[in-house]
Amino acid sequence: MDVTGLVLRAAAARPHVLLATLPGGTAARLEAERVLRLRDWPLAATPAQADVLLVAGPDCPDLRAAVNRLWQDLPAPRALVHAPGAGGVEPALETGQARLGSRADQRPRAEEPGRTTRGGDAGGPHHQEPRGGEDHGEGHAGNGGSHDDGDGDHHHAAEARHGDSQAGPQDHHDGPEGHDGGNGGTGRGHAGHEGHGGHEGHGGHEGHGGHGGGGMEMPGGLPMADQGEDRDGLTLDQLHVPLGPLLADWPAGLTVRVTLQGDVVREAEVEEPPWSDITGREAFWVQPWLRAAAGEPVGVGEAARRRAAAHLDSLARLLSVAGWPAEAIVAKRLRDDLLDGAPGASVAPRLERFARRVGRSRTLAWMTRGIGQVSTEEAREAGVSGPAARAGGDVTDRYRQWLADIRRDVGRLEGPSPLRPAVDESPRGCWRDDDPPSAALIALLPNLLTGAELAAARLIVASLDPDPDELAAARGTVGAHD
């Protein structure tokens, strides 16, 4: 019996895809999420769950090392593909599926000089950097473009993790009744660190917190630890952990370096976004405002459609971080329908049901109440505008503000009047070329994250959802004017 071929065919039949979004890759990410949903291919949350690593967006030299680190963490069999834009997503996924099921592409390479299988003690680590084109594996794969430096046994462990990682949150949130239940399984997971907020979940050291980080490490990949007093006066280890730049449900390219004592953030610092090459980057969500600022006629209906879709995208990311994947999928479907030009009359009834379920969820409100408090006055003083300033409160207030804004915008999809970019808000606030609204949102993060638990920190970032692509767009616009 051809056991190896059987394992490879099983892996390629319905691969789990880890989506790594590069700056400027929003359009490619949205297309990838849509195609994966139509194909019923699961989105992986961590490298350990993934069979295919899909890099979405134009090549970013500053993040090649982070992408390579993700690639190193994928168990075999595995494949790495790149979709620079939305049009390259389906070909990239086809290539990834073909390579995943190919014996030649998955052949172990321990016999190559300087190579070793996983767990070996000779040679250097497998290195494969993303390059332009459909698949990053070519040129590094030896005979036949192999993507593997292990054997098929890794995949069985990954398959077990697939089931474990997806069963828990889905069980807790199978419909609105499950989510609003008094005991709130996933809600208590956040508070008690057994779910997404734990050390192996969304905010954990072995989950999202380990994606694409940099910094100094000890042998074996363990971060160096210092010691310091915590808020109870005890001396505890301090871990220096990077959040980003390639986390799932995280602003693309954003890196926040935090100092942790236990699961409490003691310090937080935002790194400068990667600026080495901003050519080809598109600030997808503010395109109507950029075009209107350049003198192109744009209607308020088009802007309202893009703004509502952006808020639904932000809600989907927040709900994923909070552990409510069923409603996150509903938000993504509504988002995609709006971007595809669906009339407001067909979207409004489904949106109303979604808004009622999410807005009235007691468990979601309980999980997010009191986290990331920013008053309207504090927001205005910090230069924040848009929903985050109008909400004037915590994470709960901000996602409810998104829901209210979406309802309003869906009723304005046919508005014929021209868009005034200096007056009509973009998704994250009033648009200015020299001071994009996401810059103020990013500036809020260090103070809001300091003192928060790690799970709460993920929710805070998701509730603000700054878009680093706005900074690149503003930088390019100012440079063009100069």
Automatic annotation (TrEMBL):
At the top level, the lineage of the source is Bacteria
Q: Where is the composition biased (Basic and acidic residues)?
A: 102-115, 124-139, 146-180, 191-209
Q: Specify where the region named Disordered lies, as residue ranges.
A: 97-230
Protein name (Swiss-Prot/TrEMBL): Uncharacterized protein
Source species of the chain: Streptomyces malaysiense
Per the UniProt record, the lineage of the source organism begins with: Bacteria, Bacillati, Actinomycetota, Actinomycetes, Kitasatosporales
